[in-house]
Amino acid sequence: MGGLLQLVTVGVQDKYIHGNPQITFFKSVYRRHTNFAIESIQQYIAGKIDTGDGHIGNVTLSKGNGDLVNKIFVQVDQVDTGVNGDEVIEEVELIIGGTLIDKHTKEWMQVWRELTTPSSKSDGIKYMCNSFENNLSTRADSTNQACLMIPLMFWFCRYPGVSLPILSLQYDDILLKFKWGNNSNINKDSSSTGHNCTVWVDYIFLDREERIRFAQIEHEYLIEQLQYQDTSNKGQQTIFEMKFNHPIKELIWTENNTGANAITNQKMNITLNEIDRHALQYKEYFTLKQPFDHHTSIPGYNIKEVDRSKLLMNPILIMGGTDKCKASSGSLSGDSFQIKSTLSDDSSYTGHLRILVSSGKAVEDIKIGDLLSITYPISGTGADEAITIYSTVKAIRTKPQSGTTAGEYTLNIESGSGDITTNKPPNNSINGNGSISILARTQDPTSKCSNLKKNIYVYSFSLNPEEHQPSGTMNFSRINKAKIKITEAKQIDTIYAVNYNVIRIKGGTTSLMYSN
Predict the structure, then answer these.
(1) Angstrom distance (rounded) from CA 186 to CA 51
(2) Boundaries of each Major capsid protein N-terminal domain copy (predicted)?
(3) 183-239 tens-digit pLDDT
(4) Which of 28, 214, 232, 352 sits between 20 and 30 A of 10, alpha carbons compared?
(5) What digits encode the pLDDT tens for the residues 502-511?
(6) Tell me, which fold does domain 225-305+446-512 have in CATH?
(7) Structurally, what CATH architecture does the domain formed by 310-441 represent?
C-alpha cells in the first residue's frame, strides 16, 4: 500500500501545490461548440491561369459559397520532369475593397514554413509542395504524385478564430492577386513549359443563429501584416537601416551564406533610436537560439552539421575516366588513384582499404564520413572488367604517407565484410578505368520543408510570435531610427517584420485602422 503513503505524507509546503484544489485530472470537462461545416471550393482565376514570368492571375473570392474564409491553397498538376512548388507563386497580394492589406513573397512563405512547421510534418509539407532537391525522388512517373498544393500564409489562413467574415462584406470585394513564377525555376529540368494553376478556398458554413449574429454586428479584428525591405542590392555594409511601422512582434532576415558576403565570426546587434536593444552577438544567437526559444523549429539550413549522412542531389566526381586506377606495382601519375588492401605501417587500420590519391585537391574535397562510390579493375580479368564498392571514409592523411611517392595522399575506408579484398581484390598488374565519387556526406545543410538555401535570422520581441495572441511587441511607429549593425561589412538579402494592425468591418465595408 505504498500509494497510500504518498497521500498521508502531507506537509505545510503542499498547500501551494494541492491545497484548495481547483481542478481534477480524473474528470473530463468539455464545452459544447456552435455547429459549423467546412468545404474546399475552387475559385475562378481572371487573367493568366498558367505560370510564366510576368503572368498575373486575379481571384475575387466568391461570396455565395460560405460565411467565413479560412485556408487557401494553390494546386498545380505534377509532371514527369518534376515541378518545384516553392517557385510557383512569385508573390501574392491580398486586396479588400481596393486597399492592399497584405503581401507575401515566395521567400517569405518558405521562411515561415521553416520556422513554424514541426519535424513530424516537415517532410510531408516538403513533399506536398515538391521542394525536395533530388530530381528522381518526387517525379510523377516514380511516385505517382498527381499534384502539388501550396498553402497561403495570411493571418486568417493560420488562425480559425480570425477567419475572414465574407458574409459581413457585402460591398467590398476580396481580391487575391497572384504573380506566377518563372517557368525555368519552376521546372526541375529548367524548361520553359508553363503549368495551369487552380486556387481553392476553405469556406466555413455557420449555423443559422451564429450566421445572423455575424451579419448584424460590427467586427474589429486584430490582424497580422508583413513588411519587408530588399537589401540584396546594397552590397556589403556594416549598417542596415529598417523603415518599418506599427507594433512589430519579430524581425526576420535572410543571408545568402556564400563567398565574401557570408557572415562567419562577425557579431551583430539591433539598435533603436541609437540605443542598443541587446549586446553584440554571434550569428548563432539569431539563427539558433532565438528560433529555439520562440519558434516551433530551427530552420534546417541554419544547422551546418548532422550526425548521419545525407544523400547529395548530384554525386560529386572526384576523379574518373580512362586508366585513372593505376597498377599498385607502378606509380601514380596525373590525376589518378591506387587501391591497396593493407596498411603495412599502421596496424590500427588493419581491415580497412587504403586508397592512394595523387591529387591534394581531391583530399580537400573529400571529408571524413563521406560515402564514396569507388570503381576499380578486379584481379584475373581484363582491364575493362571492374567492380564498384560503396564505403565510408574513416581517415584522411593530408600529407604523403611514409614509403609513398611525394604527392601521394592516403584515404582509409571501411572494407565491409572483407569479401571485397579477399574475393575481388584490385588488379595490381594493370592500369584500368576507375572513378571515385561522393554520394552522401554528413555536413550538407538543407532546409527542412523548402528548398531555400539561405540562413534565417530571428529577433523576437514576443514570447510566442507564432501565436495570434499578442505576447510582446515593439512599436516601430515610435522609432525614428532602427538598424541592424554588423562588426564587419557583410550582405543581408531581405529584412522582414511581422506587425499587428486592426481592420474594422462595418456596414458591409472594411477599413484598415492604421496605415503606413
Answers:
(1) 9
(2) 24-207
(3) 999 998 889 999 999 999 999 999 999 999 998 899 999 999 999 999 988 889 999
(4) 28
(5) 999 999 999 9
(6) Adenovirus Type 2 Hexon; domain 4 (2.70.9)
(7) Beta Barrel (2.40)
